[in-house]
Amino acid sequence: MDAQLLSRLLFLLLSLIIVSGEAATTLVTSLPGFDGALPFHLETGYVTVDEEHDSELFYYFIESEGDPRRDPVILWLTGGDRCSVLSALLFEMGPLRFVIEPYDGAAGTVPRLHYHPYSWTKAASVIFVDSPVGAGFSFSRDPRGYDVGEVSSSLQLKTFLAKWFTEHPDFLSNHFYVGGDSYAGKIVPNVAQKISEDIEAGLKPAINLKGYLVGNPITGEAIDLDSRVPYLHGVGVISDQLYETIMEHCHGERYGNPNPKNVICAQAMDRLKAGYITYLAYVWANNNITRENLGIKEGSMGEWVRCHEKDLPFTHDIESSIKYHRNITSKGYRALVYSGDHDAVVPFLGTQSWVRSLNFSIIDEWRAWHLDGQSAGFTIAYTNNMTFATVKGGGHTAPSYQPERCLAMLRRWISSKPL
């Protein structure tokens, strides 16, 4: 067989693999906006998680920059309703960040990227996944595939992991953790429990699950939002007068309710609203060269948007995730729950409250943890291998504001060292 014919056959085989939606992976060596070759191993790809509706989840896999054969593997999910995990990669704990500078939008240019020295990939390999279907670059060829919920998307993530580890058997022996922040805090412990159940049933591949971690997490309980007003009052953001108005007129309503029925309550809550703009990600992710380099399937998605909050169906069918926290830790798996202490979206007061409600015995009393001789936050450790920590100066979410402290926290925790 001559070289030209062999080349054509290999090209045909590669094309069939990509069209089929299985093992559709891309090794990314460069990206628009970053000067030179990427200084880390980045693989992107798709995994089919719903055969009936031909639904595929898109992922970014970045190998540990330390020792990828020994360092843990973390599945990372981002917050928000159907938000792209690209936000976590570029704004939180990934090895790239945007250069903060005016962007003039000149033809053919994209926002510049620079290497982020406090990436969590310094300590672990991370699989960033666009979940559920419809988030980021994940898509379904059948529109019915977008009709998912918290329970079904958790099961799809379990399917994703089974297929991913089958395709990446070299990482099966690595310690594995499920992680996520904000809204994903509701999904993470459920996914961890589903994986543990498969392990108990002896299903293959046998993922080496060691635990999970959640940052600035919601649970679905009222305390997630009801702690906002007491927190903001406690740190002096709102006055005594506004605090007293809300406490008097919002009685019986969740303080985080965006549409309270009481008029005076509604007027008071309007004064707390704020916004956040990530326009650089829109420009960068919708650039044709970016999509080509990432291996995005042509025609799979229209415009990339950070979050699909209203235009796609989604069922909120996990009423509370607290029971999953109790279940998974009772099986001996480790848990890290952390909060930026300047987070007014999901304040640490509420998170600390539900962690305490688990009634686990304290084995390491509330104390400061340090980095370079300075207090980096506070922490407390419980039986059932659960650790709660605050990150000093961290907002929503903590790694966006305090990347060095969060990396130090991660390194110590995954090494089973006290914070």
Describe the structure in brief:
The chain is of the alpha/beta class and 419 residues long. The chain contains 14 helices and 16 strands.
* Number of helical segments with 4 or more residues: 14
Helical proportion, percent range: 25-40%
Content-based structural category: alpha/beta
CATH class of one domain: Alpha Beta
Largest sheet: 12 strands, mixed
Query: How much is the average pLDDT?
Result: 88
Provide an overview of this structure:
It is a single chain. With 419 residues, the chain is α/β, with parallel strands linked by helices. Among the domains are: 22-218 and 285-330, 3-Layer(aba) Sandwich (Rossmann fold); 225-270, no CATH class. It contains 14 helices and 16 strands. The protein has helices at 3-20, 86-91, 150-167, 188-200, 223-226, 228-234, 240-249, 263-270, 279-285, 288-294, 322-330, 348-357, 398-401, 403-414, and strands at 24-28, 42-50, 55-62, 73-77, 96-98, 113-115, 125-130, 139-140, 148-149, 176-181, 209-215, 314-315, 334-340, 362-371, 374-382, 386-391. Strands 1, 2, 3, 4, 7, 8, 10, 11, 13, 14, 15 and 16 form a twelve-stranded mixed β-sheet that branches. Strands 5-6 form a two-stranded antiparallel ribbon. Mean pLDDT is 88; it is low at 1-22.
